[in-house]
Amino acid sequence: MGDVAQRLAEIVGADNVASGDAVGDDYTGDETLAGDRVRPAHVVKPGTAEEVAAVLRLATEESVPVTARGSGTGLSGAARPLAGGMVVSFERMNAILDIDTTNHVAVVQPGVTLSDLDVKTAEVGLGYTVYPGEMSASVGGNVGTNAGGMRAVKYGVTRNNILGLQAALPTGELVRTGGRTVKTSTGYDLTQLIIGSEGTLALATEVIVKLHPRLAHGATVLAPFPTLDTVMNAVPRIVSSGLAPHILEYIDAFTMAAITHTAQLSLGIPDDVREASQAYLVVGLENRDADRLAGDVEAVGALLAELGASDSYVLEGPSARKLIEAREKAFWTAKAAGADEVIDVVVPRSALPAFLAESQAAAARTESGVVGCGHAGDGNVHLAVFQKDPDKRARLLHEIFAAGMELGGAISGEHGIGRAKKDHFLRLEDPVKIELMSRVKRAFDPAGILNPGVLFGRED
Amino acid sequence: MGDVAQRLAEIVGADNVASGDAVGDDYTGDETLAGDRVRPAHVVKPGTAEEVAAVLRLATEESVPVTARGSGTGLSGAARPLAGGMVVSFERMNAILDIDTTNHVAVVQPGVTLSDLDVKTAEVGLGYTVYPGEMSASVGGNVGTNAGGMRAVKYGVTRNNILGLQAALPTGELVRTGGRTVKTSTGYDLTQLIIGSEGTLALATEVIVKLHPRLAHGATVLAPFPTLDTVMNAVPRIVSSGLAPHILEYIDAFTMAAITHTAQLSLGIPDDVREASQAYLVVGLENRDADRLAGDVEAVGALLAELGASDSYVLEGPSARKLIEAREKAFWTAKAAGADEVIDVVVPRSALPAFLAESQAAAARTESGVVGCGHAGDGNVHLAVFQKDPDKRARLLHEIFAAGMELGGAISGEHGIGRAKKDHFLRLEDPVKIELMSRVKRAFDPAGILNPGVLFGRED
């Protein structure tokens, strides 16, 4: 360990390495609820892409497992290190290198937070449209998990908003993939391959993100529905309407009560309506033109009524903002309420009613609680799972994941597999695909140093 | 050869295999201008995914090179087979398996043509928005080259419009990637990896494509500009405007004269304006609402004037349709005019003026002709190259490709590398990236049977 620490110090400077007991608690995991935190042997904080590459070369030579870390806000344990391994923290590589208003891209280092990028791009009327609900998250972390969030229904997920990368390979080289162009057809799309690979293939050292114009006018419509089924059947119709909401969230009655209570937020919904509502839809609309927005708000109100909403409310600016913020904090509310796990199965939109029914049935069979909210427009459901018994919880999760996959969906829409869901993933996924992915992994990382035990493989 | 032919017949039926002299001329290449056509040893026409997988297993066992073929409309030679190899033609696998109006996807076999898919999806008011300019192209071919086309400026390229695949691996297994969901974060994105791989990694046997609502109202605005530079500087401004054109094409004066002459199309532009115009922009707008469209047409006219257009004309329906069709046929016009090569470099939009200037300079140095048109909104330029001398032409192409890459672009935006541009690609691209791609290739195709010599590798 001493020798590795010494050589890391030679690469990044002694101030930017900590080893053994000097490793701070922050570096022992991310926000994943399940599983224990693990103290790595080293934390190293490179300042340049070349330093990242040199660190990886050393790790390959010395067979030291490497876990990349942005802001540590992940929910699947992909930033949970291994004992004996090292964390490469991108906290010093947090510069916005360029905001290019002609090509509508920003070039950033991976450690930049969404919050910083949001502020800087707003100054020129543009924005990076991935809002995973936690603005302290880093762009590098977005790349790792293929982060989504509320606005994905209109703007897509991270994968759809990254045009290029510079990345350090585990073998110690730097490569540039993609660029400031919107398309290429020149060999395999390494950008797309690295996005969502949860730190197992290469580490992004620079990211080219797409920017979109910020639209001047926005409105938020809240609609209570008598049943969860009615909400879920309404979702595909709203997506098909052409109204192009940038937010289309469902929130079940339990979750709505919890998040509004936590946020001390009153939405002005009469008690009798609230008591008769099993779930809510939140529809966000935006337009560059105020009149067009007003027309769309009217149209969405009519559509919601037609689709069985009990009513619909156009929220005032501050209420709207608070509700969206409260929804974004749903994870923290669930955590505070004692949730044992938070998962994010995605299914085809049409399968939402069946998926939620099957999740409730699985919860009943295991005497567990399952409540939630989610990106209904994407078919992406965030469920908070309440079940203290680890065996029952594992059974419940397995049944929910299996139900999602059976309906044509996947275990995770945006949180990733990480360490937390790996066992389920390996049991449920086609072994031919797992083996193919393992071969791709070896093509990038022959020594197997990058996040061993994440996605697949042993934890060593 | 006899043994392989016999075994192929056992897999797909004797009627669906041709060998030796029985192989028709159609199977000896695609539409690529450069290079010779090559007769393969066998053509096999599987009818099911399982048959494709069995054919590939046989090819791996017998080390027979395999070239996949959709409609043969490619422009980079990725569907040009090897002598001694086999062509797997998807002409029999041309069914539309499902049009899912709830999830807005279609599930199709790879041999379905864009034309068939367009007709069927139109019946339910939806559409697959990749229009590469040749409606006889197949969806499988789109997947192979990551095809683009005029509407990519709004809807993205193939990569952005495919949600999942079933694919046959060269080792003979079938895998399913992605699905009817709009996002997943469950391991490496094999869908994206296979898209654009030009038949070198796996063969798509089923494709899940995104569908978009067809908007009821559309308009086409044509604007002549005094110089190419003025056009190119206008492009980023129109993209930034929020008017979201679904077509944003430039056509240089030479190309406009050629395509309108070929199409016998009169656009009603006065002679004096035409003679003073070096280039044109074609701006397509669409909306679900007629009034909003009218407002946008007015706004785009004002913007074009501000950006230096000599004038702008809202084309009548038939003229608009004919101009778009004539533009789509620009490749055929160039071919008929004796063009020796057609290329499709992509650069950041801001680099368009510099790229065109450098292309003209390179043409002057080699006494060649270079004229063109292209997807200006994407920075994707289609240049017809007139130079009979192969050495001069190779030098010219190298200089144009190098200029594009130097400006932050890539050799191809949508046509791919194939066989035609491989030598340039290998000379200009970072060797570390090439080596990484080769390792990914081996992870999929250890025996190297899939399209050897396309993208990289020897032709054997």
TrEMBL record, chains A, B:
Q: Name one Pfam family in it.
A: FAD_binding_4
Q: Does the keyword field hold Flavoprotein?
A: yes
InterPro entries this protein is in?
FAD-bd_oxidored_4_C (IPR004113), FAD-bd_PCMH (IPR016166), FAD-bd_PCMH-like_sf (IPR036318), FAD-bd_PCMH_sub2 (IPR016169), FAD-linked_Oxase-like_C (IPR016164), FAD-linked_OxidoTrans_Type4 (IPR051914), Oxid_FAD_bind_N (IPR006094), Vanillyl_alc_oxidase_C-sub2 (IPR016171)
Question: Which Gene3D superfamilies does this one have?
Answer: 3.30.465.10, 3.30.70.2740, Vanillyl-alcohol Oxidase, Chain A, domain 4
Annotated GO molecular function terms are: FAD binding; oxidoreductase activity
The keyword Oxidoreductase is assigned to this record: yes
Residues making up the signal peptide according to the UniProt record: none
- Keywords of the record: FAD, Flavoprotein, Oxidoreductase
Domain named FAD-binding PCMH-type is located at: 36-214
Per its UniProt record, the required cofactor names are:
FAD
Name assigned to this protein: FAD/FMN-dependent dehydrogenase
Q: Which organism is it from?
A: Saccharomonospora cyanea NA-134
